[in-house]
Design a protein that fits this description.
This protein is of the alpha/beta class. About 35% of the residues lie in helices and about 20% in strands.
């Protein structure tokens, strides 16, 4: 989680929403938001990280895996985590406008554990700084 809120994100034009999927204390997938670069609204960082993880594991399910995300996933990404049977999601800051908790709070797989507020202030500050620069 700390790598997702590292100061390195301040040096790039990428959104500071780095994601990582871990299994057995090993990172098996990483992702960054590629929606602008690929001109694809589904290319969220969570989707990139989960896809990379399934490719690493050689299967479509992410049981016994944890997704670490800077901000709360959207409905699409939370839904994808349902189908992948993700074991756990750890996120930093809430996303009240587009986060799944305010839109479809029951969308996660019943076995998925959720931990929020990890490095919350740092994650929220990174997002605020990034989008503040984008709007100038």
């Amino acid at each position: 989680m700390s790598s997702a809120v590292s100061p390195d994100h301040r040096l790039t034009k990428k959104a500071p929403d780095g994601m990582a999927v871990r299994s057995k204390n090993k990172v098996i997938g990483r992702g960054h938001n590629l929606t602008e670069r690929l001109n694809d609204v589904t290319a969220h960082a969570e989707m990139q990280a989960m896809t990379a993880a399934t490719q690493t594991l050689g299967g479509k399910y992410l049981q016994d895996c944890t997704l670490y995300v800077t901000i709360e996933p959207c409905v699409m990404c939370a839904g994808a985590s349902y189908w992948m049977q993700l074991d756990r999601i750890v996120y930093g800051a809430r996303e009240p406008k587009r986060g799944y908790l305010s839109k479809a709070p029951n969308i996660l797989h019943p076995k998925t554990q959720l931990t929020g507020g990890v490095l919350e202030l740092e994650a929220a500050q990174l997002m605020k700084e990034f989008f503040g620069k984008m709007r100038r």
